[in-house]
Amino acid sequence: MSPFRVGERAVVRLGNPDGHTRVPGYLRGKCGEVIEILGKFVLADDSARGIRSPEQMLYTVRFQAEGIWGADGAPGVSVTADLWESYLEGAT
Amino acid sequence: MSHDHEGSAAVSNRVKLLVTALQERSVLTEAQLDDTVEKLLLHSKPANAFAMVARSWVDAAYKARLLADANAAAAELGIDLSHWSPVKLRAVENTPVSHKVIVCTLCSCYPIALLGPSPTWYKSEAYRSRVVRDPRSVLAEFGVSLPDEKEITVWDSTAEVRYLVIPQRPAATENATEAQLAAMITRNGLIGTALL
Known about the structure:
The complex is a heterodimer of chains A (92) and B (196). Chain A has 92 residues and is mostly beta strands. Chain A has one domain: SH3 type barrels, CATH 2.30.30.50. Chain A has helices at 44-48, 65-69; strands at residues 9-12, 31-41, 56-64, 77-84, 88-90. Chain A has a five-stranded antiparallel sheet with strand order 4-3-2-1-5. Chain A is globular. The two termini of chain A are 15 Å apart. In chain A, 27% of the residues are buried. The mean pLDDT of chain A is 94. Chain B is α/β, with parallel strands linked by helices. In chain B, helix 7 (125-133) crosses helix 8 (135-141). The interface between A and B is medium-sized, with 24 and 22 residues. Strand 4 of chain A pairs parallel with strand 3 of chain B.
């Protein structure tokens, strides 16, 4: 899994894990643009399960409202979220 | 609102059980817990963020440092963050063309160390679910009517960053002192649900 660069497009992976996660459901499967690389942090999903895993890169990703809500998304509106690398995959 | 009461009673009960378990195992004493909570409440107040934003309006170099590294910019003004979780603080700036508003759709993440405890509405499901879907309408309900051409960015605090909005400096304040400017700032202004 290669790290994402600023300006690159990324898609939030589909999934529905049983335990704790920090992926907001409304962004699953949505495509956004990486706007900041925040550094490495322990993945919240693992720490909630008591799993000691290596820190993972965290990114700020910006999503346009039309990309989240389709025709119901207002032009000029965007939402950002902070997402760990394993939550994301490259946009095709 | 009976659901909320049941929720907080369940949480209180869980916290009591956890504290008892930690005390029984000599991990924590009641005095240590009281001391930690007291320090957090003593140091976490809106005056911290008001001082940072007022300074950013009178000192462009400070604003640049605040936008680049808000933890360091807080420390620079003597704001002690050691009593809080080690999270990354980030300031985002309103401009003539773009308005910012913060939320935590997953729970209630908030820059407590800089703004004190969050308002009740910030934790409500209505705010958390609606502000990402239709921020223009939600902001209008707060009395913030933005022209259609103004862009809005909603910052969802989903992980290890806590956000703070730097509002635009109020109009006609060229002669105001830093202290006078700080007194014009409101908590909602720094969440993005008010204009100054």
